[in-house]
Amino acid sequence: MSTPHTPAAEGLSMPPEWTAHERTLMAWPCRRKLWGGQLEAAKAESAGVANAIAAFEPVTMVARDADDAAEARAALDGNVEILIKPVDDSWLRDSGPIFVVDHHDEPSRRVGVHFGFNAWGSKFSGFENDAAVGRLLVEHVDSEVVRAPLILEGGSIGVDGTGTLITTEQCLLHPNRNPDLSREEIEGHLKDYLGVTRVVWLEKGLLEDKDTDGHVDLIAAFLAPGRMLLQRCAPDNPNHDNMARNREIAVAAGIEVVDFDPLAYASVEGEEIVASYMNFYVGEKFVVVPIAGQAELDAEALAAIDAAYGGAKEVVGVPGVVHAFGGGGPHCITQQVPALG
Questions:
Q1: Under a CB-based contact definition with an 8 Å cutoff, are residues 199 and 163 in contact?
Q2: One of 30, 171, 233, 332 is an active-site residue; which one?
Q3: Among 79, 96, 120, 292, which residue's CB has the most CB atoms within a 10 Å radius?
Q4: How many angstroms separate the CA atoms of 329 and 341, rounded?
Q5: Homologous superfamily of the 8-338 domain (CATH)
Q6: Portion of the chain with pLDDT greater than 90, in percent
Q7: What is the pTM of this model?
């Protein structure tokens, strides 16, 4: 189905991530070309994320075929549904739908917005299934589908639930996404389809984040309306100036900033990678945080995130270095389906 009006015009908006979820959507890693010799390790890390979430809410794991479904079933807890659909890999935050809701309706209404997906600025080929899976997943959770005229990955945005959306200029204004749209037109589409009222444009993400052109979910996350956890880097880190500039922009926009210092680096297959603790996934009662196998730094990161949420959520650390090698973490491989009612 489709609707003749934009979601915002019909009173729908994207809820913040920390509100109640009906379930979490994930997909089983399967792309040998991406993962190489780390594919089995990527599956193990994805199972760890899914099982951590399943202790709090249902999870739907998409598998590309019956063999992958059987493999996933063997690794996953009972609160995980296996759904066989064509997928190219596991980055559902970016390729999956983004849900908007209107809790003022009786009953509450939920719409899945299916944005365009071009494999992170056409950097990769063979992602046609991922570009189509958003619609299939919206239909699976019995919601209406609206197609938005914008290339957008979910990892490039965050919302606070009271009208503010954050993103980076580096990603959303990159000509490899929406070259025919101006900044004002992109902002207009975000408002129309996600129900936000203002966009705060941070400048850049992490220098090491080349695949996604600076996704905001590696450096920032809203903690509450108008309050944000933001990556800070030491003066000798090459990201220092960019992160300091992002902080200036956020403060100038009236956002209360909580500084976050831990940032891990690791080596996988001889390649040094950044492993951002900020790529955590939040639910109503939990935070699933990627850890790097570096005891002191991991403990510092988990404690800082626990403090940022005031001890109100259970903070669960899960291995995340292989996901970082692939380009993301728990946030990148999950997409929440907001609860109704």
A1: no
A2: 332
A3: 96
A4: 30
A5: L-arginine/glycine Amidinotransferase; Chain A (3.75.10.10)
A6: 96
A7: 0.96
